[in-house]
Amino acid sequence: MSLDVSPALLEKAERGEVTDAEFVTCVKESLPYAWEVITGVIADAEGAADGFADNETPPPSEAARGQLLRALASDAIRGGLERHFGVKLAFQNCHRVAVFKQSEDGTVDGDRYRAFVSPRGQLLNQSPELRDC
């Protein structure tokens, strides 16, 4: 799953002039399912008292799954989304995306975050249905 980069944006990247906003727009247009899931979880987190929300709904297709994996497996894409929305994204498997509020300095602190990203949290989130996701 690759990003759909316009010739104009590619030319700007070759010159080194790409902004985060331009990059995030490219991600939004290239990975619409991933964008929908991530923005939905962010909206849910904004309404939560502790600033946490997660998605546990499996993607409807392999193409959708690929979009989500692409968005969250890429340091550049994940980092761009985190900066754009001012959140920390965490990812456990083919679809379990979580959002955590960041402090002013961009760090995330809290028991819920540490539990989600821990080896124990990863192991507890496994199931036979997800083996080949």
SSE inventory with pairings:
Blueprint lengths: L6 H9 L4 H11 L1 H15 L6 E3 L6 H12 L1 H11 L1 E5 L5 E5 L9 H6 L2 H6 L9
Antiparallel strand pairs: 1-3, 2-3
Pfam families: KH_NucS_shadow (PF20704)
Q: Main sheet: which strands, in order across?
A: 1-3-2
C-alpha termini separation: 16 Å
Q: Largest sheet at a glance?
A: 3 strands, antiparallel
Number of strands: 3
Helical percentage:
40-55%
Radius of gyration: 16 Å
Count of DSSP H/I helices:
7
Q: Give the percentage of residues in beta strands.
A: 5-15%
- The average pLDDT score comes to 84
pLDDT < 50 stretches: none
Number of domains: 1
**Which word captures the global form?**
globular
The helix/strand class is mainly alpha
Based on the model shown, name its key terms:
133 residues, mainly alpha, three-stranded antiparallel β-sheet, 3 strands, 53% helix
Please give a structural write-up.
It holds the Pfam family KH_NucS_shadow. The chain is mainly alpha-helical. The chain has one domain (32-130). Helices cover 53% and strands 10% of the residues. A hairpin with a 5-residue loop joins β2 and β3. α2 (20-30) packs across α5 (75-85) and α3 packs across α4 (62-73). The radius of gyration is 16 Å and the shape is globular. The mean pLDDT is 84.
